[in-house]
From TrEMBL:
KW Transcription (keyword) present: yes
InterPro entries with a match to the protein in the record: GntR_C, TF_FadR/GntR_C, Tscrpt_reg_HTH_GntR, WH-like_DNA-bd_sf, WH_DNA-bd_sf
PROSITE patterns attached to this UniProt entry: HTH_GNTR
Keywords recorded for this protein, A-Z: DNA-binding, Transcription, Transcription regulation
Lineage: Bacteria, Bacillati, Actinomycetota, Actinomycetes, Kitasatosporales
Cited Pfam families: FCD (PF07729), GntR (PF00392)
Protein name per UniProt: GntR family transcriptional regulator
Domain of life according to the entry: Bacteria
HTH gntR-type domain residues: 29-96
């Protein structure tokens, strides 16, 4: 302990210092929605990990926003299931349960498979999917496992984007942000992302070939395998945390 500060205290100060750099993103007309956008990005990037308490004073000061604006942003993110308010304790980044995780995959299967199924005649608009696949392969070659995870989630956002629906896009962003909270608890991102790189490429190639039915079958199997692997490992991780 140095200067009366713990390692956790120093880490939180570093987080807030980085957050102050986001202040320029607010512009002159800061709104709760823009604050929520910034905090959502920071949460999904892991700057505020699951279980972390969000300080109104520190975050409001870093972003230069009023307490009311910040509380409204917190309310929006609570509605998105990224934050949780605990009476007399404050606002915390939510810890996803195993039941939540299974439900996340249920929604993903419904949305992603339906997006592929709804495609009309080829060629299909798979540019965003292809970019995500290439980014994932590059991250794998560079052993940048966190970037690999990001590329994989962008791939699935792009799959949902095939529906051409802003509402579906918004729904999927929230679902994948919740999923990112799960990955922040796990300690081996390579294990949960690398095995699916080849399968991402296979789904992309089926769509490029105009075979949406084959792509949907691959996707459905992929999501179930991913759910089983991640749900089992996450349950063990959460049990270990509770046992500490």
């Amino acid at each position: 302990m140095a200067g009366g500060m713990t390692r956790g205290d120093r880490h939180r100060l570093a987080e807030v210092s980085e957050l102050a750099g986001d202040r320029v993103l607010l512009g002159r007309s800061s709104t709760a929605e823009r604050v929520a956008d910034i905090l959502r990005d920071r949460i999904t990037e892991g700057y505020f990990p699951p279980g972390a308490r969000l300080s109104e004073e520190s975050i409001g000061g870093a972003l230069g926003v009023s307490r009311n604006t910040l509380r409204e942003a917190f309310r929006l993110l609570t509605h998105e299931r990224l934050l949780v308010h605990q009476l007399n304790r404050g606002v915390f980044v939510r810890i996803v349960t195993v039941a939540d995780l299974d439900d996340i995959y249920r929604v993903r299967t419904l949305v992603e498979c339906a997006a592929v199924r709804s495609l009309g005649e080829p060629p299909h608009p798979v540019g965003a999917m292809e970019a995500a696949v290439v980014a994932g392969e590059t991250a794998f070659e560079e052993r940048a496992w966190r970037d690999l995870g990001t590329a994989n989630l962008r791939f699935h956002q792009a799959v949902a984007g095939l529906a051409g629906s802003p509402r579906t896009d918004e729904l999927m962003r929230g679902v994948l942000a919740e999923l990112r909270l799960v990955f922040h608890v796990m300690d081996d991102p390579r294990r949960f992302h690398a095995p699916y790189l080849t399968r991402n490429r296979q789904i992309l190639e089926e769509l490029q070939a105009g075979d949406g039915a084959a792509a949907e079958l691959l996707l459905e199997s992929y999501l179930e395998d991913s759910r089983v692997q991640l749900s089992g490992a996450y349950a063990q991780r959460m049990a270990a945390r509770e046992g500490v």
